Amino acid sequence: MLARFPVNIDITEKEFECPLIVKTLSGSEGKGVFLCENREHLEDLMDILNEVRDVNVILSKLILICSN
Predict the structure, then answer these.
(1) Which of 28, 32, 38, 64 could disulfide-pair with 24, CB 3.0 to 4.6 Å?
(2) What percent of the chain has pLDDT over 90?
(3) Of 42, 41, 4, residue with least CA distance to 25
(4) CA–CA distance from 64 to each of 20, 32, 50, 61, 67 (Å)?
(5) pLDDT tens by residue, 5-38
(6) If you average pLDDT over every residue of the chain, what do you get?
(7) Does residue 67 belong to any structural domain of this protein?
(8) Residue 39: which of 53, 22, 51 has the closest Cα?
(9) DSSP letters spanning 3-44
(10) Does residue 54 carry a pLDDT above 70?
């Protein structure tokens, strides 16, 4: 989901379960990619990103791939 600031945490929780991945649109090569393990992490991250600058983000569910 593409989200604009301010991100509505309640709507995000309805669409995604934690943990979730938050990616800034300006990041590349792993920079600007964050793992939010719970609502508190997401709230803290949104506060930090808002302090730095207003940014748009992509929210996605965490997909783990296990290979044997």
Answers:
(1) 32
(2) 24
(3) 4
(4) 11, 19, 28, 10, 10
(5) 788 888 888 888 889 999 988 777 778 899 999 9
(6) 85
(7) no
(8) 22
(9) E-SSP-HHHHHHH-PSSEEEEETT--TTTTEEEE-SHHHHHH
(10) no
Tokens representing 54 are 């207003």
Tell me the β-bridge partners of 52. Answer: none
Q: CATH code at 28? A: 3.30.1490.20
Per the structure, the complete domain to which residue 18 belongs is given by: 2-61
Q: Is the peptide bond before 6 cis (omega within 30 degrees of 0)?
A: yes
Residue 2 is classified by DSSP as E
> Residues 50-65: what's their mean pLDDT?
82
